[in-house]
Every structure is written in C-alpha cells, then in structure tokens.
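CORE FACILITY INTAKE
Project code: CF-77B
Contact: R.S. (postdoc)
Sample description: multi-component assembly, four entities in total
Requested service: structural model of the whole complex
Turnaround: standard
Below are the sequence entries exactly as provided by the requester. Do not edit them.
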Amino acid sequence: MAAQESHEEEVPTRERILREASRLFSRKGYHGTSTREIAEAVEIRQPSLFHHFPSKRDIMSELIDIDHGESSIVAERQAAGKGSAALRLYRYLVWDIAFICRCAYDLTSVELVVDDPIFADKMAKRDALVIARRSMIEQAIDSGEFVSVDADLAEKAIVWILRGDIADTAGQAVPDADVVADQLASFILRALLEDASQLGEIRAAGSITEV
Amino acid sequence: MAAQESHEEEVPTRERILREASRLFSRKGYHGTSTREIAEAVEIRQPSLFHHFPSKRDIMSELIDIDHGESSIVAERQAAGKGSAALRLYRYLVWDIAFICRCAYDLTSVELVVDDPIFADKMAKRDALVIARRSMIEQAIDSGEFVSVDADLAEKAIVWILRGDIADTAGQAVPDADVVADQLASFILRALLEDASQLGEIRAAGSITEV
DNA sequence: GTCTATAATAGGATAGAC
DNA sequence: GTCTATCCTATTATAGAC
C-alpha cells in the first residue's frame, strides 16, 4: 500500500525523542522520567535534547496536543450530526480507538498527567471532548435508543475504556486496529442499547463510511 | 503537648500522611510529589515524615497493599465458587466498586504507578486479580450466559472501568457507594450478557441494597 | 546537530536538640 | 514526635567548542 520506508530508514531525531519519551513517560510517569533517560533511549547525550525541544515540558506538551487534536474535532462533528445518535457515537468510537491503536506514540503518558496542575493549560480541549461524548449519549437516551442510564456515569465508563485501550495498545502499531476498534465500540454499545439486536445494523452502517 | 481539638475526632499523623499523600500522588504523580509537599499538607515539617515512614517509597507501598489486599481475596473466592458465573462476577464487582468508593485514600495513585519498575515487586498480587476476573468471564462464556467476546479484552475493559471509578470517586467517601456499585456492575453485565433480561434476576440475587 | 563541562536548584534522607 | 540544620545526590538547563 503505502510506500515502505527503505530498510536503512532514518527516523528524525525529533521524532525519535517523541517516541521514546512517550514510552518512558507511560511506564515511569512524566516526573519519574529524566531527560538523561530519554537521551539514552534516543542514543544521544542529554543536552542534545534541548536543540529539538526548549524544555522537557514541551515534549509532553506536544504529545498532549497530538492526543487531543483530531479526537475533539471528530467527536464534535458527530455530536452535531443528524440521525441515529447511537450510530454517530459508534462511528466516533471506532475512529478514536483505531487512532489510538495506530499512533506511533504511547499516549498513555497523556492520560497520566491530565490532572497534573503543571499541564492545566491543556484541559480546555479535553473538556470539549467530554461534552461532545455526553451529548451523543443524552441524544440516544432521549430518542429511546439507549436505556436510561446516568449519562455522566456512562460517559465516564467510555472514557475509562478508551483510556485503558490507550494504556494497553498505544505505541505498538497494533496490526488489527479496526478489529479492536469494532470489538470495543460494540462492547460499549451493547451496554447502552435498549435493544441489543440493533447492534448488527449499527455496525454494518458504521463500517460503510469507514476509511 | 498540643491542645486537644475540642470534641473533634483526632486523626493520627500517620493516617493523615497516607490520606494527603494519596491525594497528592493522584494529582501530580508519585515522582511529581515531593516529601515537602506532603508534609505541608499534613501541617508538619518535612523531616517529621520519616518518623512515621522509613522512606517516601514506603508510603506508596502501603497504599498499594491496601488497594490489592482484599480485592484479590474476594475475586479469587468468587472465581472458585459454584453456580452462575455471571452472578459471581456481579457480586465481586459490586463489592470491589463499593470498596473503592468508601476508601479513605485516593487509590488512583496506585493505578498510576502499576507499571513503574520501582514498584515491580507489587505486581504478583495484581496478576492474581486479573486471572480471577478472566476466569469468571470464561466460565460465563462457556456456560452460555455471556456472548462469546474476547475474554482478555472484556477483562481489560472491566479493569479500565474499575480503574476509572477509582480515579473518579476514591478518597471522597462517596455517600451512595452501593448505588454507584450497582450502576457500574450493571453496565458491565449488560455489555456481556447474552440475554440482557437476566440482569434483573442477577441484581436481585447479588445486590445487597436494591435500587 | 551533537558534544563536554558545568551552573543552579530541588529532592530524599539523617543528626541531634527539645 | 516534632523541630532546625544540613548533607549529598540527581536533575533541568545553559555555554560554548567542533
């Protein structure tokens, strides 16, 4: 399909820093990872990092932006759409889970710092995502597609599943991203649908527009 | 030495350290929290901490033990039981979620360090929990109570929901712990049951406080 | 763009008075 | 059990050569 990188492909240093930093941040936390460890993983010396990023914080900051960027756009577009809210939620979920699975960075790291005050400036975009997801759930409850659960609690359960999926698969270039995305999205929909037999229809309709 | 605080219950310093440390570790991470910050929250000086705990690591270590202790016992007992596996899974879930909600400490902190190599010695008990949960799911799939999902993926989704619930409610002494426990356990069961109409029976048989 | 050398500071932990 | 004073190491970041 896509043109393969040559066998002696050179990943730019800046890119390698993001990859290795995301991996280390995920295991040991942002504060638990030193710039020396990142540099060692990238196979450069510690001060060389600062040629590519002005500070350690800016490395994490870029990873947060990558995580929040497209997800909130997709969620807001689906939340504002017409027709079955259950289908729109499914479409958003499949897109987001596949994105997480395919990402070259381990975005667990982002989830571990969401409450850290030093990244408080990044919370606005996250709030937008929460609102869009809850809106879709509320629409589906109002239309009778979903059982009348607590919309807040359901939204939280979804976030937690997405977050867990991030922790588990991100940065690994999962080969069957679409299969995992469908399985998890189906798990969530089955928990919410008033009539579980509608899941087949939704899955069929959701994959039609798939990339 | 110090004047007694009227009729208010006096919380021992050691206990206050665990509470404040768990709260700070959850927001800022284990490495992101300094012993000076913990001491400030407890309203003592930094070196006084070391009269109660030999090291900062030992504070976190105790929180991990509190989190893992009873959960694994309950899960293993239910996994080894007889009768409906769906009911046993529900009972374990309700117990664990209510425990998380009622705990005086913010056990999110524990979840944030599970992959940190410096707490690698704490992973054995965690593995026991994973095995017990997956066993219950497999039993329920084999008996036809659950749809034939990927048992690994389902176990992970459950962990993620529990973990999220920890992040969201722990350390807050949630008043309606049993209600939250039933709602979340029901969400999980509905996602897994072959026949969703069986949920009512399971809740009646397994829940302590009906909703 | 990467290196060596180093500045500047924050952090965990100890000693010993009271 | 808590305090003050302090040690020592690890850490982020800068300066300047090549």
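Facility notes:
- The mean pLDDT of chain B is 89.
- The radius of gyration of chain B is 19 Å.
Invoice: internal transfer
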